[in-house]
Design brief:
Layout (H helix, E strand, L loop, with lengths): L5 E5 L4 H12 L3 E6 L2 H10 L4 E5 L6 H12 L4 E6 L14 H22 L5 E10 L12 H21 L5 E7 L5 H9 L3 H8 L7 H12 L10 E4 L6
Parallel strand pairs: 1-2, 1-4, 2-3, 4-5, 5-6, 6-7
Length: 244
């Protein structure tokens, strides 16, 4: 379905970003892998079945983002799609004065996406009828204590997606978001080790169980493909029964 399509994937060194990149490559896409960890990106790139590119970048450094796009252009790369999976979700109760964490959460979870789309939407960098998918979170609409920086910045991301849709319709660029609940990644394994009773809580809150990365990949693939040409501005939950 994505044979030969060139897709930019942020946060590609681990978790959802890595899983999505691997899935899209199996569908024939050529991925440009972006994250801070150069060595890990190189490892992943070497394992992908289709051609790929690697670019190491801290997306919190907003001024570096257009430099990345210029590099891609110098390599003859022009994008058909983008998946913004980079993000952070460090717990921080309201009583804790950690504005540096708040600032970094805003920059990575939302501001970097704004700058990425600003560049991506230029005809220098992307093809006609291209598609953007942002990985938000079910936490953006269902809030838990201690998650204000994460929930708040993901809610901000949701609103930005809706606004971008109206601005980019004329350019035929679609922008959609997915809102996953608990996905079967290393982060969730760490939760199980760190928090006593997490598995029992997960079983109660998300009765279908942890969401396989492949299921996220299927939805991302659909939103990047021509099968979703008339879907834009959607915020689609993947919740595994997590309907509280």
């Amino acid at each position: 379905m994505l044979d030969g399509k060139v897709i930019l994937v942020t946060g590609a060194s681990q978790g959802v970003g890595e899983g999505v990149a691997r899935f899209l490559s199996k569908q024939g896409a050529v991925c440009v892998l972006v994250a801070r960890n150069q060595s890990r990106l190189d490892e992943i790139s070497a394992e992908l079945p289709t051609g790929s590119y690697v670019y190491s970048c801290d997306l919190c450094e907003l001024d570096a983002i257009e430099e990345m796009f210029r590099w891609c252009r110098s390599q003859g790369i022009k994008f058909d799609g983008m998946v913004h999976a980079a993000g952070m979700g460090v717990p921080c109760p309201i009583k804790v004065k950690d504005y540096e964490l708040w600032q970094r959460s805003v920059q990575l979870n939302c501001m970097s996406f704004i700058e990425l789309v600003r560049c991506f939407s230029s005809k220098r960098y992307s093809n006609n009828s291209s598609s953007v998918v942002a990985v938000s979170s079910i936490a953006s609409v269902r809030n838990d204590k201690g998650q204000a920086p994460y929930s708040g910045t993901k809610a901000m991301l949701n609103s930005v997606i809706k606004t971008m849709t109206k601005e980019l319709n004329a350019s035929r660029i679609r922008v959609n978001g997915i809102l996953p609940a608990y996905i079967d990644t290393k982060s969730i394994e760490n939760f199980s080790e760190l928090y006593e009773g997490f598995e029992a809580t997960l079983a109660q809150e998300q009765p279908m169980g942890k969401i396989p990365l492949e299921q996220v990949g299927h939805l991302v693939e659909f939103l990047l493909s021509e099968k979703s040409l008339y879907i834009t501005g959607a915020l689609i939950p993947i919740e595994g029964g997590n309907v509280s």
